[in-house]
Specification:
Blueprint: E1 7-9, H1 11-21, E2 39-41, E3 50-51, E4 58-62, E5 80-85, E6 87-88, E7 95-97, E8 100-101, E9 114-122, E10 137-145, E11 169-174, E12 181-187, E13 190-197, E14 201-211, E15 216-225, E16 247-255, E17 259-268, E18 270-271, E19 278-288, H2 291-299, E20 303-304, E21 310-312
Length: about 325
């Protein structure tokens, strides 16, 4: 029997999915934005700021609660965490999505270099997804433009700006069932490996956004051990995963003067049934940029991001 075909998702399909999810997309004018202040949701008192969709849910659990669908795990930080559920969506059979956060509201104002992040409990004992060779799920994360719209599509997707490339990069999780979980930065034309996780536990997934010395926009994608929240300066106490290669992208077609602030984090392209459609999350957060990233921005390092046609497959 032949192996399943890689899942190919075009921009039109993804745009329709985002629109269906109710995320802030372009309608020809500015969208509501929040004040440019750090945001943090650790689920200690409620689940506000996490938006469910199409029947998905978000539920708080105390540390070591035996009734949690993900097991009696401790919170990444504090005494509580949340479990989100995946529900099938309408744009492709076999996949769903588990809700999203706008970090208190998408921001149209660039606050200086910043990081948007979320902590996830990763199990090396996860059963492989039904469709082998493709990602089990994505953490989809983007910044916003000067109108508070996510920099998501290519071409003239962000009217009123000169942004011609998507700044969407995804943490794609590959689960082969060998006691390891590989996390890649999904950016065309291929998956760029970041880290291989060999121990179950909490991990923090961070995307840092900045303006380069050349006047363009850039992103860093990093995985941190332990699931600790980001520090006030954008650093993290957990340190990098052993053997990790953080990924950097420079968007040489996109002038930085059209870059706004935070966008969203969204659990999507989640294979239906994977991990019983449950995922533990904590520390949904935006913070200032780490000082080391400023040096990176000044150096103008990075990979050229191409106009995207996304293919999710192990290469």
């Amino acid at each position: 029997m032949s192996s399943p075909r890689p899942r190919v998702i075009t921009k039109a399909v993804l745009a329709a999915a985002v629109a269906a999810a109710g995320l802030s997309l372009l309608s020809g004018g500015p969208t509501p934005t929040r004040a440019d202040t750090p945001y943090f949701q650790g689920f200690e008192t409620d689940t506000s700021g996490w938006s469910t969709q199409s029947g998905s849910t978000v539920t708080r659990y105390a540390s070591n609660n035996m009734s949690s669908p993900v097991g009696a795990i401790a919170a990444a930080n504090g005494g509580y965490y949340a479990v989100i559920t995946n529900v099938p969506d309408s744009y492709q059979t076999g996949y769903g999505m588990g809700g999203y956060s706008l970090y208190g509201g998408a921001s149209s104002s660039y606050p200086g270099p910043f990081t948007q992040s979320v902590s996830v409990y990763v199990s090396t004992g996860w059963t492989p997804p039904t469709i082998s060779g493709t990602a089990a799920f994505w953490i989809d994360t983007v910044p916003s433009d000067i109108y508070g719209n996510p920099i998501f599509g290519g071409g003239t997707y962000n009217p009123g700006t000169n942004l011609t490339q998507s700044m969407e990069n995804d943490f794609a999780f590959f689960v082969p069932g060998n006691g390891k979980v590989t996390v890649a930065a999904l950016n065309d034309p291929s998956n760029h490996a970041i880290a291989t996780i060999t121990q179950s536990g909490w991990y923090t997934f961070a995307m840092s956004v900045y303006k380069t010395a050349g006047g363009y926009t850039g992103e860093n994608m990093t995985v941190y051990n332990g699931g600790a929240p980001m520090n006030a300066d954008g650093t993290n106490s957990g340190g990098l995963v052993a053997g990790e290669t953080p990924q950097t992208f420079t968007f040489a077609g996109d002038p930085s003067y059209d870059l706004g602030g935070n966008g969203y984090v969204w659990f999507t392209v989640w294979q239906n049934g994977f991990n019983s459609n449950d995922m533990a999350i904590d520390n949904v957060q935006t913070t200032p940029e780490p000082a080391t990233l400023s040096l990176l921005a000044l150096g103008g390092l990075g990979l050229l991001a191409r106009r995207r046609r996304r293919k999710v497959a192990v290469t």
